[in-house]
Every structure is written in structure tokens, then in C-alpha cells.
Amino acid sequence: MSSIYVLIPLAILLVSIAVGVFFWAVKSNQFEDLERHGSSILFDDDLPKKVQKTQSPTQPPSNKSDE
């Protein structure tokens, strides 16, 4: 019976934190566009990514000053 004196305030605290986080998410527009992020991984980007020229790990670095 004495544990209920700890569990009820703890439950009230957790519920109030959850409600506070929910209202913060609504206030900061977290639920504004739910479809865009879910479908963005399904479509290719319109612009290609820049490809950087890198040397292969098996090829030794070339020094033009050695010539």
C-alpha cells in the first residue's frame, strides 16, 4: 500500500511530461507534413550528386615533382 504513494505521483509526472512533449511537437510544426518524409526515400533526386575524383587505394600516389 505504501508503494502507491510513490507510483501515483510518478505516473502523474510521466503523463504530464508526455503531454508537454506532445504540445511542444504540435507547436513546433512537427506534424505539418507527414507524407513528404515518408515518401522522400522512394524517389530519386532530380540533381545528380557531385562525384569527387579520388585515387584508388591500390594505386600509389603520383608525385609529378619526381619526374
Mean pLDDT: 79
Proportion of strand residues: under 5%
Radius of gyration: 28 Å
Distance between the termini: 88 Å
Alpha-beta content class: mainly alpha
Helix percentage: 40-55%
What is the tally of beta strands?
0
Low-confidence stretches: none
Which shape, going by the Cα principal axes? Answer: elongated
- In DSSP terms, counting alpha (H) and pi (I) runs of 4 or more, how many helices? 2
Major β-sheet profile: none
Order of helices and strands: HH
Describe the protein's architecture and organization.
The mean pLDDT is 79. With 67 residues, the protein is mainly alpha-helical. The chain is elongated. The longest helix has 24 residues, at 4-27. The chain is built from two helices and no strands.
Topology:
Elements: H1 4-27, H2 34-39
Task: Please give a handful of descriptors for the protein shown.
45% helix, mainly alpha, single chain
How would you summarize this macromolecular structure in one to three sentences?
The protein has 67 residues and is mostly helical. Helices cover 45% and strands 0% of the residues.
